[in-house]
Design goal:
The chain is α/β, with parallel strands linked by helices. It folds into two domains: 7-183, NAD(P)-binding Rossmann-like Domain (Rossmann fold); 224-309, N-(1-d-carboxylethyl)-l-norvaline Dehydrogenase, domain 2 (Orthogonal Bundle). Helix content is 52%, strand content 13%. The chain has an eight-stranded mixed β-sheet with strand order 3-2-1-4-5-6-7-8, with helices on both faces. Helix 1 packs across helix 2, helix 10 crosses helix 14 (286-309) and helix 12 packs across helix 13 (259-267). The longest helix is centred in the C-terminal third of the chain and has 24 residues, at 286-309. The chain is globular, with a radius of gyration of 22 Å. The mean pLDDT is 96. Bound molecules: nicotinamide-adenine-dinucleotide. Nicotinamide-adenine-dinucleotide (NAD) is lined by residues 11-17, 34-37, 40, 92-95, 99, 103, 120-122, 143-145.
């Protein structure tokens, strides 16, 4: 937590802006929350209050931390007031490129010249759209809804983004407890939304087969891979299942194993059972790796079942 409150601005107080303001405020930053609409600002603070109380009821924060955090949020309908003396600005206005460009144009004119200008865009390569004078300080920090809770933030650097702007952003994100993932370049949908898109596309294809209903697919996912992926991503999960098994299963579904998978199978690097796959298990026994996965899954199942009972 910073010793002296550092100020940052959140532009747009909708679903994401409200969560962002709460997140930074509860981590001790002075947040200037800007929106054109007074109603949006009032609602954003109200939603932060509700979420903070929920965290306090849950035992994550002290009851006194609710008001402390709310006191760190200043709302304003003036863009220039919001960015005075800030070191970081994040825009979360609607996903309309022309609107985002307009906001960045204005920020370029009125924000402190060394302030990082971040966009929470889900899709646009805003960096390539920027005029030369601000391009060095523009980047994407893509939070997930609800921003105050989901740990991952995808950080996307443009060709002209300075290393300093990236470092400031990564440092800030770590300071508020996030897991920032730096992408070496822009790719539409970044990492996670592309993976989500492929899951959704397959869900539609299965639906089209007429063998299950949408709620059946949702229940199937909730009761299987959503839990398993919470304790290990696709590559760790493939390593645990065995890469030879994964390659054969892909083949059986008419998908030739992609080269990184086929090459490992060819070499005999089959995952946990051979000590090496996508990861090197550095001599850890396969039993130990499996036990660690199972322990984490049991913790999660405990919480999941508790949630189902409430
Ligand atoms: N909603 C999500 O799940 C989600 C997740 C990740 C990223 N995003 C991205 O975050 C951004 C914001 O999304 P959202 O869902 O919070 O939108 P939203 O519609 O809930 O909120 C946008 C807010 O911006 C305000 N606004 C509009 N024009 C403005 C301007 N010129 N200056 C200041 N404020 C202005 C609106 O009054 C509104 O309160 C988008 O780029 C979106 O793609 C959204």
């Amino acid at each position: 937590m910073p010793s002296e409150k550092k100020a940052l601005a959140v532009i747009g107080a909708g679903i994401m802006g409200a969560g962002l303001a709460q997140l930074f405020a509860q981590n001790g930053y002075a947040v200037r929350l800007h929106d054109l609409s007074e109603d949006a600002l009032t609602q954003a603070v109200e939603s932060a209050r509700i979420n903070l109380r929920m965290q306090s009821d849950f035992g994550w924060i002290e009851p006194s931390a609710v008001d402390e955090a709310l006191r760190n949020i200043e709302t304003t309908t003036s863009l220039s007031d919001s960015v005075a003396e800030v070191f970081f600005v994040i825009e979360a206005v609607p996903e309309v490129l022309a609107l985002k460009k307009e906001v960045f144009d204005n920020l370029g004119k009125i924000s402190p010249p060394d302030a990082v200008l971040a966009s929470n865009t889900s899709t646009f390569d805003v960096m390539s759209e920027m005029p030369e004078d601000i391009a060095g300080r523009v980047l994407i920090t893509h939070f997930f809804n609800p921003a105050q809770l989901v740990p991952l933030v995808e950080v996307v650097k443009g060709e002209r983004t300075s290393d300093g702007a990236v470092e400031t952003s990564m440092e800030l994100l770590r300071a508020v407890g996030k897991y920032p993932l730096l992408l070496k370049r822009y790719l539409p949908g970044f990492v996670v939304n592309r993976i989500q898109l492929s899951i959704n596309a397959m869900a539609f294809m299965i639906l089209n087969e007429g063998i299950v209903e949408p709620e059946d697919i949702d229940k199937a996912i909730e009761n299987s891979i959503s839990l398993r992926l919470a304790v290990g991503g696709p590559f760790a999960t493939m390593d645990l299942g065995g890469l030879d098994v994964m390659a054969a299963s892909a083949q059986a579904m008419g998908v030739p194993p992609p080269p990184p998978l086929a090459e490992r199978v060819e070499r005999g690097d089959l995952g946990v059972k051979t000590g090496k796959g996508f990861y090197d298990y550095a001599g850890a026994s396969s039993d130990d790796v499996i036990k660690r996965r199972d322990y984490r899954l049991m913790l999660l199942l405990d919480a999941y079942r508790k949630g189902l009972d409430e």
